[in-house]
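Section 5.1 Outputs to date
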Amino acid sequence: MRTDCNLTRLDRVFARLDREPERPVHIDVPKMSRHRVVLLSATLAFYLAVVWAVVITSWLVRLDWQVMFFRPYQQWSEIHWFVDYYVVLGQRGPTAVMIAAWLGWRSWRQHTLRPLLALATSLLLLNITVGAAKLGMGRLGPHYATTIGSNEMGLGGDIFPSGHTANAVVTWGILAYLASTPRARRWLSALSAVTSLGVGMATVYLGTHWLSDVILGWVAGLLILLALPWFEPLITRAEIGIFDLRDRWRARRGSKAPAPAFPVDAPVLVTPLASPQDDSAAPEPVAMARSPRAPAYLAPGPHTARSERTPVTPAGSRRPPHPERVTRGAARPLTGG
C-alpha cells in the first residue's frame, strides 16, 4: 500500500529556504524594448508638464491651496495615529533595510548579486535625480508657505517632488521589477502601486506636502523604474568584477599554505631487502651495540664471604656520657643534708 507524503505549509516554507545548487536560468532580465521607451517618454513628458503647471501657478497650484485649507488631519483626526505609522513605509532608511534584507536572501539563494546591485542602482538614481530636483526648484511646504495662492518656488525649500512618495515607488516597485514570473510581477506591481499611493496621500493628510508634490513624486519614481533596464549591462559588469575579486582573494588565501611545525629532513632513499631464498644476498647479522649502563653499586675493596669476615668489636662504651651516672662498685659521694 503506497502512501504519499503530504507537505504542510510550514514544510513548504522551510523547503523554500534551502539554497539552490546553482543560479536559476529561467530568470529573465528586463530589456529596454520599444514599448518601454514609449512609456518612458510619455512619463517624462508628464513630469515636465507637472513642473510647468506649478511654475506658471496654474489650476494645480490653486488645488494645492484648497487641499491645504481643508486640513485633512483635522477633518479625520481619528485616523491620525494610523497615518503616522503608515507613512514610515515611505521613509528611505526603514524601507531600504527591509528590502535589502529580502533581496540579500534572494542573492544568497540564487548565487547572484543582481538583486542587491539593482536596489543600490535604483536608490543611487533616486538620490541624484530627486535630490537635484528638490534643490533646483526650492519649493516651500504647506507649513512654511508665505503668500496665499503662490507656488512658493525658489524660496529655499526641498519638498518638490515628494521624496517619501518617490522612495515608496522605487523601493517597493523594485520587488516587482525583480520578480521571477509574470504573475508575481503583476501582483507585486499592484501592491507597490497601492502602497506608494497610500504613502503619498498620507503626506498630504499630515500637511507636509502639496498635492502636486505627491503627483511629481509618483512620476519621478516611475521614471527610475522604467529607465533601470538601461543600467543592466553595468550591473552585470559590476557583478562579474565582484566575483572575480572574490575568486582572486580565495586563490591568494589558498596559495599561502601554513609552514610545518617541525623542519622536514631530506627524503632518504630506502632500498628493498633481498628475497629470503637468495642466501648470497642475505645480510650478515650485525650485533646490536648495547648502550652503556651505569654499574651496580658495590662496596669498595675485595668482596669476601660473610663467614670469612672478622668481627670487629668497637672499643669503649657506645653509650653517651652522662654526668650524674655512677659506675657500679664506685662509692657514692656524701652530700650534707
